[in-house]
From TrEMBL:
One of its GO terms (molecular function) is peroxidase activity. The lineage of its organism: Eukaryota, Viridiplantae, Streptophyta, Embryophyta, Tracheophyta. Its EC number is 1.11.1.25. It is an enzyme of class 1 (oxidoreductase). It catalyses: [glutaredoxin]-dithiol + a hydroperoxide = [glutaredoxin]-disulfide + an alcohol + H2O. Residues 4-164 form the Thioredoxin domain. This is Glutaredoxin-dependent peroxiredoxin. The active site is at C51. The keyword Transferase does not apply. Belongs to the peroxiredoxin family. Prx5 subfamily. Gene3D superfamilies: Glutaredoxin. It comes from Forsythia ovata. Thiol-specific peroxidase that catalyzes the reduction of hydrogen peroxide and organic hydroperoxides to water and alcohols, respectively. Plays a role in cell protection against oxidative stress by detoxifying peroxides. Coiled coil: none annotated. Keywords: Antioxidant, Oxidoreductase, Peroxidase, Redox-active center.
Length: 200
């Protein structure tokens, strides 16, 4: 399956987590993302060095700033079981906004087309490292890493993209400019007709 890309709608899928009462729950991605601006970021594995020391801490530290940009949810996904994700989440006591979701069988990761074969390292199927910005289920930003790199999927990268995003697409700008020209021509025509009537 081709990797999900900008302009695509994210598929639905069910992920697992432990709630505040320590009860195992399942949740659909669409229930979390429909009608909202959501960041989905994924890591190859819980407790791994880059994921634990750089990727996740970045989103925790920048969560308030991302929220100020209109982000409603920040979701961390990993191909691990929910017990591992629960233990990993507890290593970040200052976390208030990042939700840790388990994709134990990699079914959702595969639905995104972002699985990574790490069988040669004894890790089986995992997720590529990525960060998606999704608005009402549509992908607006898709920063997907190559291999084990960590160069484009950080919280800072998403913030940078958000700060550079125009208020509306360039195609809309062209359309607005074209409509403005048409309106100007229409106004001039009305003025000419009015002048002729005044002359009569």
């Amino acid at each position: 399956m081709a990797p999900i890309a900008v302009g695509s709608s994210i598929p639905d899928g069910t992920l697992a987590y432990f709630d505040e009462q320590d009860q195992l729950q399942s949740v659909s991605i669409h229930s979390l993302a429909a009608g909202k601006k959501v960041i989905l970021f994924a890591v190859p594995g819980a407790f791994t060095p880059t994921c634990s020391m750089k990727h996740v801490p970045g989103f925790i530290e920048k969560a308030d700033e991302l929220k100020s940009k209109g982000v409603d949810e920040i979701l961390c996904i990993s191909v691990n079981d929910p017990f591992v994700m629960k233990a990993w989440a507890k290593t970040y006591p200052d976390n208030k906004h990042v939700k840790f979701l388990a994709d134990g069988s990699a079914s959702y990761t595969k639905a995104l087309g972002l699985e990574l074969d790490l069988s040669d390292k004894g890790l089986g199927t995992r997720s590529r490292r990525f960060a998606l910005l999704v608005e009402d289920l549509k992908v607006k930003i898709a920063n997907v890493e190559t291999g084990g790199d960590f160069t484009v999927s950080s919280a800072e990268d998403i913030l940078k993209a958000l700060n550079q995003s125009p208020p509306f697409p360039s195609s809309d700008l062209n359309m607005n400019a074209e409509n403005l020209k048409k309106n100007n021509k229409f106004c001039k025509s009305r003025k000419n007709i009015q002048s002729m009537n005044d002359g009569d």
